[in-house]
Design brief:
By secondary structure, the chain is of the alpha/beta class. It contains eight helices and eight strands. The chain has a single domain, classed as Rossmann fold (3-Layer(aba) Sandwich), CATH 3.40.50.
């Protein structure tokens, strides 16, 4: 079984998220993709976001009817109020899956560029395989340059058409594969959506109509309302 783990703020979830998940599912023949809104991202603790339950509700609406896409609460706020570290989440997720299940961590190229600042990033990069999607024209050399110094990288054969592959190594016994999808034909920014909504501009072209209706109904992201 091949499981795509797609963690993120989803504040709000938008068409770019869905496009990335579809592309990964098609190229790597993933059986399921778990959308996991994060309780507290360590690198975004000072940024206001919609509440966790609200982001779960919006993400559930965004993926409704999408084959193989499911909501997951594996990255819910921690009882001890510590930040959600992805390496801990991946290890917890693995305990819930059948033996032999493969985990592929999905993310956009822009997000991956900050991987060196993630908690225990070298250990994380070999804890599961990664799928990094980029828009056409993105300099893929920046992906390798973003890796922590202790992670070595080499070209690898990609068994999936339309994907490039890098072999990652950290320590003598730990290895994983990073798959690059260089043709994600979608450019949407959650921050740009929030800014538009804050100033009263519609963002329906970038988000699912059900999500847009939920945002309007609850008055989210408006300058005169708390997120």
């Amino acid at each position: 079984m091949k499981i795509g783990f797609f963690g993120g703020s989803f504040d709000p979830p938008h068409r770019g998220h869905i496009a990335l998940a579809r592309l990964a599912a098609e190229r790597l023949s993933l059986d399921r993709i778990l959308f996991a809104p994060v309780g507290m991202q360590p690198l975004k603790r000072d940024r206001p976001t919609a509440g966790f339950d609200v982001r779960v509700a919006m993400t559930t609406l965004a993926i409704a009817g999408q084959p193989g896409m499911e909501i997951s609460l594996v990255d819910a706020p921690r009882a001890d109020r510590r930040p959600n570290y992805t390496i801990d989440t991946v290890r917890t997720l693995r305990t819930t899956l059948p033996p032999g299940a493969e985990i592929f961590c999905l993310m956009g190229a822009d997000s991956f560029l900050s991987i060196g600042r993630w908690y225990r990033s070298a250990d994380l990069l070999v804890a599961c395989d990664f799928v990094v999607a980029a828009r056409p024209g993105f300099d893929l050399g920046r992906i390798a340059a973003a890796l922590p110094a202790t992670v070595s990288v080499a070209a690898a054969d990609a068994p999936y058409p339309g994907a490039l592959a890098l072999s990652l190594h950290h320590g003598s016994r730990h290895a994983s594969t990073l798959y690059l999808l260089p043709d994600l034909d979608e450019e949407v920014s959650a921050s740009a959506i929030r800014e538009a909504l804050e100033h009263g501009s519609p963002a329906d072209s970038a988000i699912d109509p059900r999500v847009a209706a939920y945002i309007r109904r609850h008055g989210l992201y408006r300058a005169d309302a708390a997120s």
